[in-house]
Design a protein that fits this description.
single chain; Potassium Channel Kv1.1, Chain A; 5-stranded mixed beta sheet; two-stranded antiparallel ribbon; NPH3_dom; BTB/POZ_dom; ubl conjugation pathway
């Protein structure tokens, strides 16, 4: 810390209790000056020779036949006046970052300028500020902190503005050229933590990070912090990521973790002002400078402290641009009255809508530039796939809420396009939890909830679980079993042909002979599944007998199913055999669901077809 010593005489200012100060001297004091509650017994000559204001006040007191002067609203109080008194008497006084602003304001109040005497106190303090204080990083911050209690004097003397300019200028310096002390308590990565000098292998140099300054300015009051950040941003030399890190650090420093502390009467107003200020300081880069997790946490606080509509809307706009970076935990925002759900479902729905609107906008721009590659680009967007996983994970968490209605559940699920979910395991998990926590759903509601899921996009493990899940409607279980039959048969047929096995869910031949990729273009109707089964069954019959080993394995795996699912599967397997025998039933199209097929239909086929029957077992 920088300091400056003034005067050379010993300190003769003595105290008598808390409210009396006097000069220890052979000469009797001849003037009484009261500053606040403290009375100073002093001599006229040393004071009048350096203070123009005291000259005026003493003249006025003499006219009133009084030797007492009252200094009301003296900047800096009695301690600042002591510094001025010691300077007038030539006593030793030390100025530093903590008292220099008070001394400067007091000297201005007493008019201790060059007009009265050369080298007066105002001049000496200005030299100290310019040559030392404003050149020091930490001293500039300390001085700026002391200016708040000395307003409006510190503002009128431009001390605040000069401190802010000094701080902002230093933050823009190339980190490689930083030579002054700063605070940086956060741990650096191992790669960045130590740089070894080849010429001095035992000396270790710690590089200066780009955000070296963010911790030090966190100690500033919110009003001063805002002015510093605005000045830093106005210079245009600071990266948005560093700005975002600075705002995050300040929020962590001053926003309490407890919800009760956030909304308490003693701190709610301050916290509201704090959040609104941080929001208005966000970097103007469409939210790219701040992490989505930080923005969502800030949104939570903004809702709790009832920040203004602009702040909440601005946060949601920025979050909507990078929702793919969020985590499920970030989206679990507590609901406020009059909502009855545990979490704010409507808010998440709005964020998803904003994200999809932004995505469609970027897609339109991209389609104008590359129309032939628009769909390919959309399918390849990893961000949309991340949002798909995010939505399924979020549904899995909020599904435990007994007050969550089926309409809200469906709306959240349908907020993203189908191709954002190449895998439906996460959605199935959420549906299973919702059905378990909401046993009172009607048959229509259960059907609507389960209709969100495409069984062809379930993995083998999820399909096995779904086949044994008694909470699912019978129709869904039938669909799962049928598709598993197709998948197993396709795998067996691939081994019979000697071809390398493919993912059974990647290609399936439908009734029209077209190749369907279930990852993004899978058919959703059960009629198509039936046609696929019939065509695949006919193909199996033409190619010969199926591998017996795979058949045995399939049957052994069937034993793992519960009795309800096993009976359904056995019935469907028999129906599949009957359909393979009866070609006329394949083309009739009379069966729209697995349960509508009866074994009696197979008897209508001619005797010539029976000669073509192949053994499946």
């Amino acid at each position: 810390m920088k300091f400056m010593k003034l005067g050379s005489k010993p300190d003769a200012l003595q105290a008598d209790g808390k409210s009396v100060r006097y000069i220890s001297s052979e000469l009797a004091t001849d003037i009484l000056i009261t500053v606040g509650e403290v009375k100073f017994h002093l001599h006229k000559f040393p004071l009048l020779s350096k203070s123009n204001r005291l000259q005026k006040l003493l003249t006025k007191a003499n006219e009133e036949c009084s030797d007492e002067i009252q200094l009301d609203d003296f900047p800096g109080g009695s301690k600042a006046f002591e510094i001025c008194v010691k300077f007038c008497y030539g006593m030793t006084v030390t100025l530093n970052a903590y008292n220099v602003v008070a001394a400067r304001c007091a000297a201005e109040y007493l008019e201790m300028t060059e007009d009265i005497e050369k080298g007066n106190l105002v001049f000496k303090i200005e030299v100290f500020l310019t040559s030392s204080i404003f050149r020091s990083w930490k001293d500039s911050i300390i001085v700026l902190q002391t200016t708040k209690s000395l307003l409006p004097w510190s503002e009128d003397l431009k001390i605040v503005g000069r401190c802010i300019d000094s701080i902002a200028s230093k933050t823009s310096v190339d980190p490689a050229n930083i030579t002054w002390s700063y605070t940086y308590n956060r741990k650096l990565s191992e790669l960045d933590k130590i740089v070894e000098d080849k010429t001095a292998p035992h000396e270790k140099i710690e590089p200066v990070p780009k955000d070296w300054w963010v911790e030090d300015i966190c100690e500033l009051d919110i009003d001063l912090y805002k002015r510093v950040m605005i000045t830093i941003k106005s210079k245009g030399r600071m990266d948005g990521v560093v700005i975002g890190e600075a705002l995050k650090m300040y929020a962590v420093r001053w926003l309490p973790d407890s919800v009760d502390a956030l909304v308490s009467d003693a701190h709610a107003r301050r916290n509201k002002s704090l959040v609104e200020t941080i929001v208005c300081l966000l970097p103007c880069d469409n939210g790219m400078g701040c992490s989505c997790s930080f923005l969502l946490k800030l949104l939570k606080v903004a809702i709790l402290v009832e920040a203004d509509e602009f702040s909440r809307g601005h946060l949601m706009k920025n979050i909507g641009l990078k929702l793919h970076e969020a985590s499920v935990r970030d989206l679990l925002i507590p609901a406020r009255l009059p909502l009855i759900t545990k979490f704010d479902i409507d808010l998440v729905q709005d964020l998803l809508n904003l994200y999809m609107t932004n995505l469609r906008g970027s897609r339109d721009i991209e389609s104008e530039e590359k129309k032939d590659k628009a769909n390919e680009s959309m399918l390849g967007q990893r961000s949309l796939l991340n949002v798909g996983k995010l939505v399924d994970g979020y549904l899995g968490e909020v599904a435990h809420d007994p007050n969550l209605g089926p309409t809200s559940f469906v709306d959240i699920s349908q907020s993203i396009p189908d191709f954002a979910r190449p895998n439906h395991d996460g959605l199935y998990r959420a549906i299973d939890i919702y059905l378990k926590e909401h046993p009172g759903l009607t048959k229509t509601e259960r059907k609507k909830i389960c209709g969100l899921m495409d069984v062809k996009k379930l993995t083998v493990d999820a399909s096995m679980h779904a086949a044994q899940n008694e909470r699912l409607p019978l129709r869904v279980v039938v669909q799962v079993l049928y598709f598993e039959q197709i998948r197993a048969a396709a795998a067996s047929n691939g081994r019979t042909r000697g071809n390398s096995p493919r993912d059974s869910s990647s290609t399936v031949v439908n009734g029209d002979g077209e190749c369907v990729k279930s990852g993004g273009e899978s058919c959703h109707s059960h009629n198509t599944q039936m046609c696929e089964l019939k065509t695949r069954d006919e193909e199996f019959q033409k190619n010969g007998k199926l591998n017996k080993k795979s058949s045995k394995n399939s049957r052994s795996g069937m034993q793992l199913l519960p009795s309800r699912s096993r009976r359904i599967f056995d019935k469907l397997w028999i129906v599949g055999k009957g359909q393979g025998e009866n070609r006329s039933s394949e083309t009739s199209g009379s069966s729209n669901s697995p349960t509508s097929v009866v074994p009696g239909d197979t008897k209508s086929s001619g005797s010539s077809l029976r000669h073509r029957r192949h053994s499946i077992s």
